[in-house]
Automatic annotation (TrEMBL):
The protein, known as: Uncharacterized protein
Domain of life according to the entry: Eukaryota
Amino acid sequence: MALVFDAAILSRKADIPEQFVWPADEAPPVGDVEEIAVPVVDLAGILSGDGLRDLAAACELHGFFQVVNHGVDPALLAEAYRCCDAFYARAIDEKQRAQRRPGENHGYAGSFVGRFSSRLPWKETMSFNCSAAPENSRMVVDYFVAALGEEYRHTGEVYQEYCNEMTRLALDVTDVLSTCLGLGRGVLRGFFEGGDSVMRLNHYPPCPQPHQTLGTGPHHDPTSLTLLHQDEVGGLQVFTGGAWCAVRPRSDAFVVNIGDTFAALTNGRHASCLHRAVVNGRAARRSLTFFLNPQLDRPVVPPPELLALDGRPRAYPDFTWREFLEFTQKKYRSDSRTLDAFVAWIAQGRGRGGHGSRPEEESG
Ligand SMILES: *[C@@H]1O[C@H](CO)[C@@H](O)[C@H](O)[C@H]1NC(C)=O
Ligand SMILES: O=C(O)CCC(=O)C(=O)O
């Protein structure tokens, strides 16, 4: 029988199916890992002096920080979690009405069952587009109603508002990062205006063997900037200084991960953040992730001001978000080397002749 990630059944088993067992050197160790100390940026203030230097250092070192005083209404956040819980509590066949199909980036997915057959993540996800183009202002609501039915209209409204807020916040964060790069405030914002962003609700059920598996394997986000909110359970880890470090949950903060596309936009000045999520045996964990993207067909080219300031040659070839997205969807399983693999694929003629990328099933 085909494997199905049904949390209600799997969480109660003594042993997890072998497809979820990760190799010992990749599985999380028993016992606590050290916590990472990261800059906390107060978005209500003006960033300068030591604060600015600390942030720049973090962006260059591991690509990870947090923001507070971000202006997102706590009531909206609470409702976003409530709707997330309500959705995941439903029977699997209801969730599967929105089943994500191969090659698509939206819908419900129980683990990666169907796409991969080993090192599966212990989670279920629901992803949807949130384009910031004015004509798409009802996109999230329409999607929920079309995919799951009229009874999901309220849920759709909540995530529509949440996505609008995330878009606003992410653009504010690009202003801070512009400053960090020594560019004028607002230099990066225009690149993302009207962008094709994506939102994902992650649910990690309790796991009977939490040290044998991962909730989300080690990866860099191929996207530009990720705004992540994790619940009080904790499980997000960042790789820095040669070790995995835990990110202590902070309900008033959003975690910002720099992704591959943003790293390319900064000509490699800012680092794309390597991260993963661990699961636990006691509690279900949730996280809400918003992935800021440019418009699909906008070429990813560092701003001329930045290239002039750096005086370094271009670190990456021109590409569009559409190409990179398709690469991660159809040709490569996102991991710690996605951008390098993508760059190699471009150098080899974008799959036209020669050896393309590694086949999906073998990639890690
Ligand atoms: C979501 O966006 C992707 C590209 O970013 C597109 O291929 C897909 O068709 C969109 N899905 C929906 C439901 O709008
Ligand atoms: O749940 C988390 O904390 C991490 C989620 C994540 O990395 C992702 O959705 O890409």
